[in-house]
Amino acid sequence: MAFGIKRDELKHWKKEVEAGNIAFLTHYWADDRFPQMNTVTKVGCRDVDKLKQWGKKHGLKPKWIHEDEKYPHFDLIGSFEEDILKAEGKLDQLRRFKSVEK
Description:
Strand content: 15-25%
Structural class: alpha+beta
Protein name: YneQ
Number of domains: 1
Largest sheet: 4 strands, antiparallel
Order of helices and strands: EHEEHEHH
Shape: globular
Organism: Alkalibacillus haloalkaliphilus
Strand order of the largest sheet: 1-2-3-4
Number of helices: 4
C-alpha cells in the first residue's frame, strides 16, 4: 500500500517515465513481507534498456525490474534506497519521509 504523495507528484512521475526519462518517486509504504521498511522509491523509465543500464550502474539486477507495461520500474528499499538516492542527488525525496543524513 502506498501513501504520503500528492496526485500531482504521481502524475509527474508517470509523465517522466512515459517520456523515457529516469524518474524517481518516494512514498510511504507498508508491506507485511518487509515490516521494518516504511518507504520505497520507484525508479522508472519506459525505455527498459535505459533502465537496465541505470540499474547496472547501481548494482541492481535486470530481473528486479517490475515489468509493468506502461511503467517499468525498480523498487528501492532499505540501504539500496538511501545509497542510490544519495548517489543520484535525490536524498531530498527520502528526507520528506524519514531522518536521513545529508
